[in-house]
Amino acid sequence: MSSAVAIRPPARPDRAESVVTEGRAVRWGLTGIAILFLALFLVLPLVTVFIQAFAKGWSAYFAAFQEADARSAIRLTLLVAAIAVPFNLVFGVSAAWAIAKFEFRGKNLLVTLIDLPFSVSPVVSGLIYVLVFGSQGLIGPWLIENDIQVIFAVPGIVLATIFVTFPFIARQLIPLMQEQGTAEEEAALTLGASGWHAFRTVTLPNIRWGLLYSVLLCNARAMGEFGAVSVVSGHIRGLTNTLPLHVEILYNEYNFVASFAVASLLAGLALVTLVIKSLLEWRYSADIAAGARRH
């Protein structure tokens, strides 16, 4: 006589308990430290900027933007970003496409060079441009003879901004393109599509959210860059001062309300960037996950 023995599957452990082994006190302690750190070093300074900006009311706040120097700084900041971001967009997409889709000699060197601005201080990068394009620099005398001014002018500010921001687009797109592979492009080429048509109809739609995300970060950094621009600008009021430099000048002159008012404009840009970044980051992660599922 045989008897059947029912085998009950082991109870499924709670997901949080199966992953997290620390006690409740440790988890709450770490969470509290993180929240305290963010409150002291991020939230509190940000709130202080807006409190100081509106310390004397709305009229004083808006008066800070009516000055000719402030308007000039805003125009220059927008102009520099409008030039630097498209340049970095073309370079970033081209570099990411070449690195992710092709094999060639010097590929690792190219990736290393793209990361160079992350490891070099912005002040040092600005000094490099002074040593190259300054009046006593490598090609400075030739520029003076031909009446071309780079340092202490808009071209120098644009060059310094491009240098410190050009990794942002390429470094965001390279892993996304690598995850997607080359199968879809090869299929399009097999069906008779040209390289440009394959890029426009296959590659570009697959990277659109990552591309928007990287352009947003690049633009935010371009508009907020201080170190490199400070070295090459010459701090000429009304001519070569961007918004960050204008904030510094106002603060050094003890014009605190105007200084914080202009700073709040940059802080507001940062907050808007953060919101849009979170939305695009979600779509960017979804693109990577979709590419992984396909391959």
Automatic annotation (TrEMBL):
What topology does the record note for this protein and the membrane?
Answer: Multi-pass membrane protein
| UniProt xrefs under InterPro entries | CysW_permease, MetI-like, MetI-like_sf, Sulph_transpt2
| Domain ABC transmembrane type-1 stretches | 74-281
Instruction: Recite the UniProt keywords alphabetically.
Output: Membrane, Sulfate transport, Transmembrane, Transmembrane helix, Transport
Q: Where are the transmembrane segments?
A: 33-55, 76-100, 120-143, 150-170, 254-276
Q: Name one Pfam family in it.
A: BPD_transp_1
This protein's source sits in the domain of life called Bacteria
| Cellular compartment(s) | Cell membrane
Main localization, broad class? membrane
Alphabetized NCBIfam families for the sequence? 3a0106s02, permease_CysW
Q: How does it assemble?
A: The complex is composed of two ATP-binding proteins (CysA), two transmembrane proteins (CysT and CysW) and a solute-binding protein (CysP).
What the protein does comes down to: Part of the ABC transporter complex CysAWTP (TC 3.A.1.6.1) involved in sulfate/thiosulfate import. Probably responsible for the translocation of the substrate across the membrane.
Q: Which PANTHER family match?
A: SULFATE TRANSPORT SYSTEM PERMEASE PROTEIN, SULFATE TRANSPORT SYSTEM PERMEASE PROTEIN CYSW
What is this protein called in UniProt?
Sulfate ABC transporter permease subunit CysW
Q: Which organism is it from?
A: Methylobacterium marchantiae
What would be the name of the gene that encodes this protein?
cysW
